[in-house]
Write a structure and sequence with these properties.
binds adenosine-3'-5'-diphosphate, 42% helix, alpha/beta, three-stranded antiparallel sheet, Rossmann fold, 7 strands
């Protein structure tokens, strides 16, 4: 089912037709996951592109060539998007992928595999702000209206991939043991080197101090902003218009403070509190 042609409804979740099709969603549902596959899982606007930079660097032991020569959407494709079937077919292991799918919509072979997962979570208020600006620059998404109007849609889950709370809860209650590592966008902003070390350890890669230095220069915000293979400057302006808002926009934690009114903060807090009731894990932003 489509909504105004811009979205497909997939198991109740809105996904953009620009990058998804019935075939790509079927491909994801039937995908044969291998034990040495690596997934970075995110709710949109939580650091997906960042992981598309980090994973190839770490998995190759510090080789920067892939991130400097292959666009992010092909080097670490979204499992559910149309590029996946085109680039994953003959890719040698380890294959790195990103996905916005909630836990229960992962393909059956994922659950019986030993594939590793890095789940990146970001303060949902910053996610809402980042998403608002993204909707302004991406012509294949609905016009977001005012921030206040967009916030209502975000809280109701009438946005890409549904509610933030549902996504986070689905992956937080996953039964993957030591196959999954959780990391916060805010942790990566505060200490990128430490985050890269944690991720390397989790993936069983040992990067030298020098390789880590180079990885930090490549994967920091300015490094990625200057990388044409990661900053979406290859996408025509009629699809993604950086003059309205660059894709790599601010790259900070806490930008929500420049957008939320006290009333919007209260509205957000009421919904968040209700929906996160009973969730054991605490996030750094819970004390905001
Ligand atoms: P902002 O709009 O707040 O700047 P995604 O890739 O999931 O769509 O997320 C995009 C968000 O991640 C954007 O947030 C973008 O700037 C931020 N981001 C991407 N790479 C980053 C990096 N190296 N450092 C900090 N933030 C980064």
């Amino acid at each position: 089912m489509t909504t105004e042609g811009k979205y497909i409804l997939f198991k109740g979740l809105m996904v953009p037709t620009e990058t998804h099709s019935a075939e790509s969603l079927k491909y994801a549902a039937e995908f044969q996951v291998r034990d040495d596959d690596v997934f970075a899982v995110t709710y949109p606007k939580s650091g997906t592109t960042w992981m598309q930079e980090i994973l190839p660097v770490i998995l190759s032991g510090g080789n920067l060539t892939p991130v400097q020569t292959i666009p992010n959407w092909d080097r670490v494709p979204w499992l559910e998007e149309t590029r996946a079937s085109l680039v994953l077919g003959d890719r040698p292991p380890p294959r790195a992928m990103v996905t916005h799918l909630p836990y229960h919509l992962m393909p059956p072979s994922f659950f019986t595999s030993k594939a590793k997962v890095i789940y990146v979570t970001r303060n949902p208020k910053d996610v809402a702000v980042s998403s608002f600006h993204f909707h302004k620059m991406a012509s294949f998404l609905d016009d977001p209206g005012t921030f206040d109007q967009f916030l209502d849609k975000f809280l109701a889950g009438n946005v890409l991939f549904g509610k933030w709370t549902d996504h986070v809860k689905s992956w937080r209650s996953s039964d993957l043991g030591d196959r999954i590592m959780y990391i916060a966008y805010e942790e990566m902003v505060e200490d990128l080197r430490g985050a890269l070390q944690r991720i390397s350890k989790f993936l069983g890669r040992d990067l030298s101090a020098e390789a880590l230095d180079l990885a930090c220069q490549q994967c920091c915000f300015d490094g990625m902003r200057n990388n044409t293979m990661s900053n979406y400057s290859l996408v025509p302006a009629d699809i993604m218009d950086s003059s309205k808002s660059p894709f790599l926009r601010k790259g900070v934690a806490g930008d929500w403070k420049n957008h939320f009114s006290p009333e919007q903060e209260a509205r957000f807090a009421a919904v968040y509190k209700e929906e996160m009731k009973g969730v054991a894990c605490k996030f750094s932003w819970d004390k905001d």
